[in-house]
Design a protein that fits this description.
386 residues, alpha/beta, Aspartate Aminotransferase, domain 1, 14 helices, seven-stranded mixed beta sheet, 2 domains
Length: 386
């Protein structure tokens, strides 16, 4: 008989290295953006294989800074997937640009080249595409970039779920001009709150680095360590307060060392789910187009289909009663009141997102899940649906 009473949706793992780096920051007396943040940026860029990395206080901040660096202006039109978190849309609105949500592929929740081509045919004056690598799986990014280049459309990648994710042996973060990562508490690695923008474009990097801290033309740490008068600086644009403190970067350094281990551990849980749930006709499992090893496996989202005996909400309630945490990723953009009313969005334009949304449930997924925990979750799913 199982002794399990509660399984959370996600769980963080903090080890000795994170504590070591945190103690170094505390002992230094300098807690905000400084040496540890610079070290985290360099090691993250090296890991990805990008020239530049800029640490910020959230992926939302990274997306906002990225849009600014790409020169998107008020009134410009930006394509985004409807199956994404609200942040992907809200950063567009920050600068007064307009979003155009589009449908995604059922089973992956990714924008495909076919979906993109149809959207461009319908909307001729698109300035930017934001690609979301949903759940940890890479979109067909090379093909999407080729289409955008052909139509004069800029592209930015929302990789909040996708570290470390590969496509054709290449890490996400090395394909397009700008890629944005999240280190929120439940992400594949965490800094508590935090994000990273990576790019190979020096002009983008310089713009982002300046705008992340009030538009000041010198870093605080540079001013502190400089041998010239440290008070001297200039503000060259109206920037933001988006910098990452060293306290967060210290955690990130420790987490980065375990990123591949964490990914492989999550894959073990995913393999268990696929094997034990594959014959359950009442749910659709997530589709992985490539190798399991290329997927970051931030999420394992199942969809209760029309054969299911209960609704998605009832299923979640019963899973909670069994002590199993779940979540929903996501209520699509076209369902959210602000966007639905502003853009007169109707669900009939998003058949795949609607089909996903009606039954979408993300099962627990984190490193070091035991076979007992996984079997308990699988048994709960089967018993509830039975």
């Amino acid at each position: 008989m199982s002794t399990i009473t509660k399984i959370p949706f996600s769980k963080i793992f903090i080890g000795d290295s994170e504590r070591k780096y945190l103690n170094e920051v505390l002992d230094s007396g300098w807690l905000t953006t400084a040496g540890k943040t610079l070290e985290f940026e360099k090691k993250f860029a090296d890991f990805i294989g990008a020239k530049y990395a800029c640490a910020v206080n959230s992926c939302t901040a990274a997306l906002h800074l990225g849009i600014d660096a790409l020169g998107i202006k008020a009134g410009d039109k930006v394509l985004i997937p409807s199956m994404t978190f609200a942040a992907t849309g809200e950063v567009v609105r920050y600068i007064g640009a307009e979003i155009i949500p589009i449908d995604t592929e059922y089973g992956t929740n990714l924008i495909t080249p076919e979906i993109l081509e149809k959207a461009i045919e319908k909307h001729k004056d698109i300035k930017l595409l934001i690609v979301v690598h949903y759940g940890g799986q890479a979109a067909q990014i090379k093909e999407l970039i080729e289409i955008c280049n052909r139509h004069g459309i800029k592209i930015m990648e929302d990789a909040a779920h996708a570290f470390p994710t590969r496509k054709d042996g290449q890490l996400v973060g090395t394909f397009g001009d700008i890629t944005c990562f999240s280190f929120y508490a439940n992400k594949t690695i965490t800094t508590g709150e935090g994000g990273m923008l990576v790019t190979n474009d020096e002009s983008v990097y310089k713009r982002v680095k300046t705008m992340r801290l009030h538009g000041i033309n010198r870093d605080i740490w540079d001013r502190f360590t400089s041998k010239t008068p440290s008070w001297e600086y200039d503000v060259i644009d109206a920037g933001y307060k988006y910098n990452m403190p060293d306290l967060a970067a210290a955690i990130g350094l420790g987490q980065l060392e375990k990123a591949e281990l964490f990914r492989s551990e999550r894959q073990k849980a995913v393999e268990f789910y696929y094997e034990k749930l594959k014959d359950l006709s009442m749910i659709d499992l997530p589709i992985c187009h490539g190798e399991l090893e290329d997927h970051a496996w931030h999420l394992f989202p199942i969809v209760l289909n029309q054969k299911a005996s209960i609704s998605r909400n009832e299923f979640i309630e019963k899973m909670s009663e069994q002590g199993v945490g779940t979540s929903v990723h996501y209520k699509p953009i076209h369902q959210l009141t602000y966007y639905k009313e502003r853009y007169n969005l109707i669900k009939e334009d998003y058949p795949n997102a609607e089909l996903t949304w009606s039954g979408n449930v993300s099962l627990p997924l984190y490193p070091y899940m035991t076979s007992e925990e996984l079997q308990y979750i699988v048994d709960a799913v089967k018993n509830i649906l039975a």
